[in-house]
Amino acid sequence: MRRRLVSDRAKCTGCMNCQLACSFAHDRRWQLGLSRLWVRKKEELGWSEAVVCRSCEDPRCVRACPNGSLSHDGGGLLLDEEGCLRCGDCIRACCCGALRADPEGLPLVCRLEPGIPPCVAACPTGAIWVEEESEGGPGGCPEARR
User: Fold this and answer.
1) CA-CA distance, 28 to 99, in Å (whole number)?
2) Is residue 79 part of a domain?
3) What is the per-residue pLDDT across 51-72, written as a single tens digit (0 to 9) for each?
4) Nearest to 90 by CA among 56, 64, 55
5) Three-state DSSP class for 47?
6) Number of continuous H segments (helices) and E segments (strands) in the chain
7) Which end of the chain is less congested by CB atoms within 10 angstroms, N or C?
8) How many domains, the chain?
9) What is the pLDDT of residue 140?
10) Is residue 102 part of a domain?
11) Which residues of the chain have pLDDT under 70?
12) Residue 115 has what DSSP assignment?
């Protein structure tokens, strides 16, 4: 089974609780810029959505890493921080725009640990959840569904 985060724009209020919970869980700081996901707002259209790593079956971000420091384990992404070149190739290759860098240029990757992720637990409306699907399913990238 492959695990991935899913978000629903119709349920997202834009409160950013998910971002704060994620940053605190990983870095022990309440800092939006350290979150492994982010909230995109289109105020003129009246919606918000959590942009999450889709745990693609064949992740372009992993393929883009020039020295193999980024890998995928069927759940989340794994980063060898010591080996990471901080080149940003993975961030540019991400099909859904979920990957971002910390202030030192290190990619902020979603590891999607077992259990209920902090972002899911912190969402007051249920706009983010974990989905499990069989290997070989439709994948997470929009390109995989075409």
Assistant:
1) 20
2) yes
3) 999 888 889 999 999 999 999 8
4) 64
5) strand
6) 4, 8
7) C
8) 1
9) 55
10) yes
11) 134-146
12) S
Measuring CA to CA, which residue among 33, 35, 39 is closest to residue 51?
A: 39
With respect to residue 136, please indicate whether it lies within any of the assigned structural domains: no
> What's the CA gap between 75 and 110, in Å, rounded?
9
Residue 9 CA to chain centroid, in angstroms? 15
User: How far is 123 from 16, CA to CA, in rounded Å?
Assistant: 8
Amino acid present at 124: P
Residue 47 CB-half CA count within 13 A: 10
Question: What local confidence, expressed as pLDDT, does residue 133 receive?
Answer: 77
Does any domain span residue 137?
no
> Which H helix or E strand runs over 89?
helix 89-93
Residue found under tokens 């883009």: 64
Range of the domain at 98: 2-131
Which CATH number does the domain housing residue 11 bear?
A: 3.30.70.20
Q: What is the reported pLDDT for 74?
A: 72
Tokens (6 digits) for 122? 């912190």
